[in-house]
Design goal:
alpha/beta; homodimer; five-stranded mixed sheet; about 300 residues
């Protein structure tokens, strides 16, 4: 058995998996913001709980993996900076002792989600897979030759910060024209908010008002479904930028699969079917086979499974 | 001993290397354009020649590798399409029999050059390296975890066809705004030719006339050295696009080294020193260590050494 932990800004979810990555059950508690001692305590408590519920002896757990938003010193088993967790320099090496004596691994949540989809989700089949998360930002997780690729300093895979529009819109990272700026849910909403200033008669504007003046990716997608011309135009433009970034990743990596997660991927085939068409138009590798574009299938469980399956 | 062959559009160069990739000596003949039988004959002849010169018994050669511009069916040891060689569907599996009984490997010339620089050149040190060739196009070769990465269909690493300028200048590949369009020697020359239409009083224009009306990367670099304002402006713009693409590669791969080859890299530190400054400005990974930008050190020998050191 292997234990995977999705350490999020809101909840800490602990799951227990079979050795090959099937999630059996999970338990969760709110993450104690800024309190590392309390966090370690509840992680151990939840780990014991999932063991008990699955009739697993803690000594039989082969490894514990933690996925969190932040940066790590993996060799020291330490979260050096936990984005949205309010804590830094937290060592997890002995957080589960004395009950668990197995090794503890760490990685960022995006990488864990990619590994989870690769092992147990829609990323299965093939050695090379890119996970693209279209959420608040554009996250990435890269599986090459069957393993997570994280570069020499463990922070590779920042595909969201690949510039696709030279001198384009400013990004939080300091660059201009990043993939993330155009293709995150945030980017889609930003362009919609801007367009709505001159389209107060649109269905999209009406839906925004009904949602207390706040847009989200789902509202924009729903307005497309309702035939709103403005929403459809916005979504088409979004798809063109997305296809640009995806073709870049294909030309660089030639992965068998690209797996889409995050809020915008919730639109499913209505996103993927037109995206495939746009990608196909610019594909330079068609005669040699091409990447399959699929929706992630595990939702939030991907991060738990991936954490459980981390390698040293 | 291992034999590496750089099968180029002009010459076929055969070298013999030690098992760990030190090139001992090489011999070459003009490539017989469009004549596969003759090509196989001269490759075998040159292989025997380098064996004789290095006092190597052909039966002691562990492997023969061929790097060529084109596409391959590696499992069939076949060049499926040889760009600029005028031949296709040439099987090399038995081209060296009966003298040599070792396995024969194939890969494209860009990948072989990257592997050569990684094993014996300035790419040494570290597991992850990207080679960027700034020549007629922008070529790439990717070494990850100590091995060539070529994707599931063996055509990964087309970093030149990463769009950095959405809807930018048209590229031969069919896309618009590719890295190659802005950062190849060809791209630099194209932008200079265009600018010269309105700057007939520049040093650069004079140098172009002295070269029978034809620019090349060296002339542009030399004009920079001579203090020509136009050339310096053009080169600065070129560097900004180059830094953009290089930062993309860093954010995606976090390699220890990026090795620059090709004509423009001949400008050496005059290219690399300002490039490092521009890259540094947009680097999001500085606290975690960063890629070293270096010039390739093996010249044309990189392709021979890399071919000799190919893995199955």
């Amino acid at each position: 058995m292997k234990i995977g932990i999705d350490l999020g800004g809101t909840n800490t979810v602990v799951g227990i998996c079979t050795d090959d990555g099937a999630l059996l059950l999970k338990s969760s508690l709110p993450t104690p913001h800024g309190n590392a001692d309390e966090l370690c305590k509840i992680m151990r408590q939840l780990a014991l709980e999932v063991c008990e519920k699955s009739h697993t002896v803690p000594a039989d757990v082969l490894q514990i993996g933690i996925g969190a938003p932040g940066t790590f010193d993996k060799s020291a088993c330490t979260l050096t900076f936990g984005t949205n967790l309010g804590m830094s320099n937290v060592c997890f090496a002995h957080a589960f002792a004395p009950d668990f004596t197995c090794p503890v691994y760490l990685d960022n949540d995006g990488n864990c989600a990619a590994l989870g989809e690769y092992i147990s989700g829609s990323g299965r089949g093939g050695d090379n897979m890119i996970m693209v998360t279209l959420g608040t930002g554009v996250g990435g997780g890269i599986i090459l030759n069957g393993k997570l690729y994280t570069g020499f300093n463990h922070i590779a895979g920042e595909i969201g910060h690949m510039v696709i529009v030279y001198d384009g819109l400013p990004c939080n990272c300091g660059r201009k024209g990043c993939f993330e700026t155009y293709c995150s849910a945030t980017g889609l909403i930003r362009s919609a908010d801007r367009a709505l200033e001159n389209h107060v008669d649109s269905i999209l504007h009406q839906r925004k008002l009904e949602n207390n003046g706040r847009l989200n990716a789902k509202i924009i997608c729903d307005a497309c479904d309702a035939g709103d011309t403005l929403a459809m135009e916005l979504f088409h433009t979004y798809l063109q930028y997305l296809a640009c970034g995806i073709n870049n990743l294909i030309n660089i990596f030639q992965p068998q699969k690209i797996v889409f997660g995050g809020g915008v991927a919730g639109y499913g085939e209505k996103l993927l079917a037109p995206l495939r068409e746009l990608v196909q138009k610019e594909l330079i590798s068609a005669p040699c086979g091409q990447a399959e574009l699929v929706k992630a299938s595990l939702g939030n469980d991907a991060g738990i499974i991936g954490a459980a399956m981390l390698l040293e």
